[in-house]
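User: I've been trying to design a sequence by hand for this structure and keep getting stuck. Would you show me what you'd pick, starting by listing the structure so we're on the same page?

Assistant: Good idea, let's start from the same input. This is the structure you sent:
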């Protein structure tokens, strides 16, 4: 994905912001037009926890994630019936992201069965 300037259609460049993806600004090298993106505290925590960096892109804690995702490998994490029912109540447009986040948390904790208790832990950590 890239951002282009609406005035001159040139690709926008990231202004110096270090490694902070929570507050990013872009400017057009041609005409100087610019804009900024700002994340709230919860979004900033999610960005940091996912291991996102401006210079390097997404780097997961477990490098095999790319292969597992590409192959559709079974994570061997199971879902309790009550937890699946609760997951189904999450708005559809964010459900897949929530499911992956919960499974990632469970995997890092060595949990093999997602329960409503695990979902509560994730909810408390990320404030969702």
């Amino acid at each position: 994905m890239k951002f282009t300037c609406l005035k001159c259609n040139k690709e926008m460049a990231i202004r110096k912001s270090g490694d902070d993806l929570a507050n990013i600004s872009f400017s057009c090298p041609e005409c100087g037009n610019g804009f900024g993106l700002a994340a709230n505290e919860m979004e900033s925590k999610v960005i940091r926890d996912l291991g996102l960096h401006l210079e390097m892109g997404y780097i997961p804690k477990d490098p095999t994630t790319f292969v597992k995702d590409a192959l559709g490998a079974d994570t061997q994490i199971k879902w309790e019936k009550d937890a699946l029912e609760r997951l189904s109540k999450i708005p559809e447009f964010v459900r897949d992201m929530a499911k992956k986040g919960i499974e990632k948390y469970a995997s890092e904790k060595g949990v093999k069965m997602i329960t409503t208790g695990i979902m509560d832990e994730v909810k408390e950590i990320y404030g969702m």
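That's my pick for every position. To get oriented when you compare it with your attempt: The beta strands are 13-14, 23-27, 34-38, 52-53, 57-58, 78-79, 113-114. The first strand starts at residue 13 and ends at 14.
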